[in-house]
From TrEMBL:
Pfam families: Methyltransf_5. Its main location: cytoplasm. Keywords: Cytoplasm, Methyltransferase, rRNA processing, S-adenosyl-L-methionine, Transferase. It catalyses: cytidine(1402) in 16S rRNA + S-adenosyl-L-methionine = N(4)-methylcytidine(1402) in 16S rRNA + S-adenosyl-L-homocysteine + H(+). This is Ribosomal RNA small subunit methyltransferase H.
Amino acid sequence: MEIVHTPVLLNECLEYLSPVGESFESEALMIDSTLGEGGHTYNFLKKYPSLSVIGLDADKVIQARAKERLAEFGDRMHFYNGWFQDFYADYPSEYKRPNIILFDLGISVFHYEKSERGFSFRYDEPLDMRLNSSEGESAADLVNELAEEKLADLIYLYGEEKLSRRIARAIVEARAGGRIESSKALAEVIWNAVPGNYRYGPIHPATRTFQALRIAVNGELKRLPKALHDAFGCLQPGGKMGVITFHSLEDRIVKNYFRNLGKQCVCPPEVAVCRCGGSACAEIITRKPVAPTAEEVKVNSPSRSAKLRVIRKIKDDTPYHLDGVIGF
């Protein structure tokens, strides 16, 4: 089987999330919240023979590839097909609590190169972008049905695109002549909408719009805060949780939530008297996010914007306080 995705910050994940130490059982359990083709999990299982892994993924197609790749590990490997926030919100009673949790929030190269769902503007594919293609609205639905103002807001908020209003206006004008159904067609509309000097910048002018549509279609930022909180609740005290992000919107959510867990008091502001015991719920292991080395960026360019943040859980009974974290 051809593997097209290279896991980012792999060595750093193996080091910071290693199932070694006083707080770890001899047979630790790891949950890979975003299994993809199984790159991180494969290397964890290879390096740590006593480790078992539950791999989560909403995409049945890419999970089938992971099952084939990870078959050699037998009953050390378990699979869950569905969204990670659903898994953590209703953690299966047949599993013990995990010692390690990993979120790799990047979209697999497989989706850009092999899925044929319009994630990339380099190919002429149906404009879908759903990780689970059997549910929810597609990118084409948003592009063709959202009002101009809402479309502009979406592109600005999720893509941080400064020309969002200009691009949204061009999309609305173009769809008046017929639905925009392909990734190539949308990319051409965006290309023609922006000024000449913007077309030849460091990234293609459609990059941020495509990112915004993908995030919106899959509810990536809306799912994340509650998923982090529920995952932390499932984590065994002494266990570690690591999150890899790829853009500032994700990283802000993770940074703020981890910072709250590391405070001496995490009660909401409206609570007059501390109820959480006045002690931190987690130790922040990475005071600054871990970035890829220059060597990794050279051989795996998608890693260039990756950041890894890791915490160790100190205690249970974490108040659900995400004030200032959810802004989407």
